[in-house]
Amino acid sequence: MRSVLAYSGETTPRPVQPATQLCQFPQPLVVRRLFQSSILSLQDVLLLAWHTVRSLPGGRGAGARLIAQLDAVGVRSVPIVMLTGLFTGMVLALQASVQLKQFGATLFVGRFVAASMLRELGPVLSGIMVAGRVGAGIAAELSSMKVTEQLDALETMGAEPIRVLVLPRVIAAAIAVPVLALIADIAGLVGASLVSVMYLGVPISAFFQAAIDQVVIDGFVFGMIPSDLVQGILKPLAFGLILSLLACHHGLRATGGTAGVGVATTRAVVSASITILIADYFLTQLLLVLL
Question: Could you tell me the residue range of the domain that residue 108 belongs to?
Fold first, then answer.
């Protein structure tokens, strides 16, 4: 024991601390730092959104850039959104049939699927799928441009990175995600109708009539627009803005060379997915009050 103490430069042994003291962590400090970093990140995202709005209408070549991003964000995301909606609708029909069959109410499967897909699952799943595919791509592209100093080259040439790179991606996501959500809704209803016909023996006309009845029961906005459709468009509109802004934010703030590209991509996908789920709750509360 004395040789060890002499090697460490100590002459007397340290008192043994209780196990409860050894297991203590500076939790308040960690929570405070996490809260501060979250507030600063939110501030940066809001500033990015403000600068994006100020960069409207986009300048020369804005139309071509927007069309290119609509193709990248919207058209190329159609297959994955269709598959997601299709199998989600099929699973919903199967799960609903298990419960409704006990009461002999399998004819109401269409109502259950229509309400679930139009209000929640269509918008949320579309937003998360696009966040995973497009958000990762946006973050990787912008972060690679940041670490290789291409953004500095754009500024040297007199081009604004936000106007050239951020604005078309944000607008394209705001346009494409609601359309993709509608595609997911339609695919989900088609998948559920196939399950209803093949496994439950429900005629396809009865299935879609039940779905239409559910939309009618939920009411209309201004007497002509189904409230379910309004929710199914406003939510993915907000999700498109969220995922595109967060992806651009993490991409523009990437540091650390090529390793920073992977970090920015991961943060973009995770933060966008979590924020979409959180925003869905508050949007649901707001829309239930307003509609």
Answer: 62-290
> What is the per-residue pLDDT across 114-136, written as a single tens digit (0 to 9) for each?
888 988 999 999 999 999 999 99
**Who's near 4: CB < 8 A, 6+ residues apart?**
none
Q: How many domains does the chain have?
A: 1
Tell me the two tokens of residue 190.
């088609």
Cα separation, 126 vs 119, whole angstroms: 12
Angle at 17 between CA 11 and CA 20, to 5 degrees: 165
Q: Which residue has the tokens 């937003």?
A: 127
* Strand intervals (E) in the chain: 220-221, 225-226
Does some domain include residue 226? yes
* C-alpha–C-alpha distance, residues 275 and 246, integer Å: 9
pLDDT, tens digit, for every residue of 181-232? 999 999 999 999 999 888 888 889 888 998 888 888 878 887 788 888 888 8
If you ran DSSP here, which 8-state letter would residue 12 be given? Answer: S
Q: List the end-to-end C-alpha distance of the chain, in Å, as a whole number.
A: 76
Q: Count CA atoms within 13 Å of residue 16 on its CB side.
A: 2
